[in-house]
Amino acid sequence: MKLRVLTAIALAAGLLASAAQAQQAAAPAAPPDLNAIPEKMPFNLPFGTPITMDSAQAVIQAAIAEANKRGWPEDFAVVDPGGNLVAFARMDGAQLASIAIAEHKARTAARYRRPTRAFEDAVQKFGFNYILTLDDVIASRGGIPLVEGGKIVGAVGCSGGTGAQDEALCMVAAGTVNK
Fold it and tell me: Which of 16, 21, 120, 136 is buried most, with the most CB atoms less than 10 Å from its CB?
């Protein structure tokens, strides 16, 4: 009987120790100091001449090729710096709700001059829920600005998979412009 009690105590102590280690390892990163004043304006790339239709379609074709390789049916949108749609494609089998989401991700990335992952991280990692009150923000990965010659010419948005899948396809697509 004493052996069972000692075994149970040892097991409980081991579980508590491993739970404490797991909690320590999973501790979120310290949030940025919102009162800090940066020397330079973050995400301050200038807007350039809007992406052409031919370039926008090449961006989408790169995304489709990667999605086909991986077997991920998705929706893709390319917008100009003002967030206006230039090109769009919906793969066969892609979910219909993702049409508007792909456009929204592209529009947010272009207008705010940053990947939409920045908004996702702000909300998910740091609890900055005020981000969700900003006009036309989507806090979900899968929107990437398109930069040519150091200027934003538009953005690409992908939707239909997980955030990581959407972002992976957008990175490939953006690589046709962002060099």
Answer: 120
